[in-house]
Here is the input.
Amino acid sequence: MIGFLARRLAQAIFVIFVVTLLVAWAVRLSGDPAVMLAQGAGSVTAHDLENIRRGLGLDRPFSAQYLGFVSGMLHGDFGRSFMGGTSVALLIRQALPLTLLLAFVSLALSLLISIPLGIQAAVRRGRLADQLIRMLSLVGLSFPNFWLALMLVLVFSITLGWLPPSGADERAGLIMPAATLAVILTATNVRLVRGAMLDTLSAQYIMVARGKGLGERAVLYRHALRNCAIPLITYIGLQFGGLIGGVVVVERVFNWPGMGSLAFDAVAARDYPVLQAVVTILAAMIVLVNLATDVIYGLVDPRISRE
Amino acid sequence: MTGYLRAALIVAATMVAPTAGQAAGTLTVAQSQDPASWDPVDTFLISWGQLATNVFDGLVQRGPDMQLKPALATSWEMLDGDKRIRFKLRHDVTFQDGEPFNAAAVKFSMQRLLGPKGAKGPQQSNYTAIGSVEVIDDFTVDFMLSRPDPVLLTKLAGYGGVIVPPQYIAKVGDDGFAAHPIGTGPFKVTDYQPKVSATEEAYGGFWGSKAKLDRVVYRFIVEPDTQVAELQAGRVDIATNIPVALVPNIQKSADLRLDSITGPTVTVLRFNTAHGITENPDVRRAMIMAVDRDSIVKIILQGQAKTVTSFQSDLSFGFDPALKPVPFDPAGARALLKQAGVAPGTPVQLDFRGNDTTFREVAQAVASYLTAVGLKASVKPYEMNVFTNDIIPNGKTGEMFQFGWGGWTFDYDNTAYLMYHSGEHWNPYDKDTTLDGMLEQQRTMTDPSARLKKLQAIADYVAGHALELPMYNLNTIYGVNKRVQNFVPPADNRLRLNDVTVD
Here is the structure.
């Protein structure tokens, strides 16, 4: 188990390192932060742009800029935003908890809905309830998340006036962004639970459980659900990366000041320090969640960690 | 499953009280961009002008009509044959922390702008005509000019010209000042959360007309759709970024009004005058004749713009009401193209900024007008940063390319010099010594009326050589809740809100 963990950890560190190199390199391929800083100005000259570049340290060679970024990260110094010199650590301290909150609430909401529905669909396979659930999930899958977000705003904020259309300053501001993400997640999760459940329900130990005279509820939730936990955990771990991708769009529409909004602005402004830090942290989170998934997987099924 | 979710949502939603209206005396403004730094010498962002114009004053300022008027200086005169400007300063002005305003503060601000701190930012180069600053007495200060600059007074109303507090900056440092600014203006910054919001409260010691509002809250909201939703929900009083496509949403609502005013940005289609068929002035002239700009403004831009005849708005110094537009004449265009030997079906490409959804429609309309006179026109979107930093300065554009320029000085020099003078960053194609000469000459002229004539002659020359297809001056459109009174949106986007009240 320890050897397995050490191997996985080494892999994770390597992946994060490669990500830092890729992001630092890719972000410099196009565009010039100096131009973005000067946009809207009337009389920016090439000389001004050079001054700004020097002020931002962009006149140094790439290797120096990259090493500065990596060694800063290792020392917990994330540098300063190109836009106004705000500390990147401060920006991330504000944004990261909001994104984690949004991601976990939508994931929890989605599981809360998709597990019972998925089980029901599996139990009533082929019957009306199953078909209805599968159809609804297809509809959910087909929604582009930004469209769904705008529709929710139209109904709940503008027409009914119940919820704030954007922002994280009120607790109610969490409802619509979380619901939007949850709808998309639920659509896939229902199908996943249903599939896993169908496999499990045909297993012999379920017949045994039923044969023992256990109630249907105990059979489903105590025996069957536990045994589909392994594929479910794996899938939810993998889903985390996709969830972060969805968060970017949803945060933007709802003006939720999380990591997605931060990344979006940083891309548009070519704000290298912010973008590098955000991408590295998100990548590290995805890698760590996958690592945790592997570990849990290994714990649940000892055969895997021995391989 | 969506049914369950909706039900859950509705239950959750009913537990939340309806959104409360703002407290009396608080104005909430939705703002597209966070200024990031409040330091005037660090920035060129429009958002700085929208937030910090309330906080800082210059020696002079511009009203919403763009006319210069006294601010921290009560009067000024040119001495020594225009080599020295003497400013008489206003008495009894204090910075928002109580620090007195005087000639020493003016000298400090200018030295900071023109020294090493200013060199790291984009403002300094506007002010290099100021050679040195001399304190005559506490309330008299002289600017010694190292070279003539006819636009200097206007520039002193600009970002870099505002007066900052020497003692406070000595105490908190440049970084502290950039995060917690102090100025002499009617509002002081009391709270600032990067990327989220900023709050300004009325400064009771302000020297001019004191703020009627208690508080202005700026919320940073990037998406225009979200700004409009917040406006419609009554949680925002002024939305500062309304694209043309969302104008009907505002018009539909009984609680809202549109404040649409001349904006600082003029959009033109510049020609690739160095390569291809557009090397020929007659071809360029024909392409100008082919496009019905009035219809584009009326239909696509819903009347929220004015057509232009040169690369400046009618508020710009250098504007010439006598310069007539090239009339829309497709038959004439076809004849001119034929005469120039351009075969029907010759391809032309129009490059534009892909994130500009309004212009995307304009570009398609222009392309169809060009197709109607026999050219094979296509449009090509670019990501903005790539477009402005690579495609244009390196001369990689198609036959024509979108260019929007906002001369914050409202002086044609600003645009004309950077667009047409040889070797300028954003001028990849034109090299014309006659034009260079005219552009250089007006920079040394101090007599305003002679200089105006010269600027008009430059615009005439550019039109005569068909260097660009002049399109329009897009309005700046604000969505405003009707409870807001006395809000006069300024053409330069610099919001000064001391006279504004809310019902």
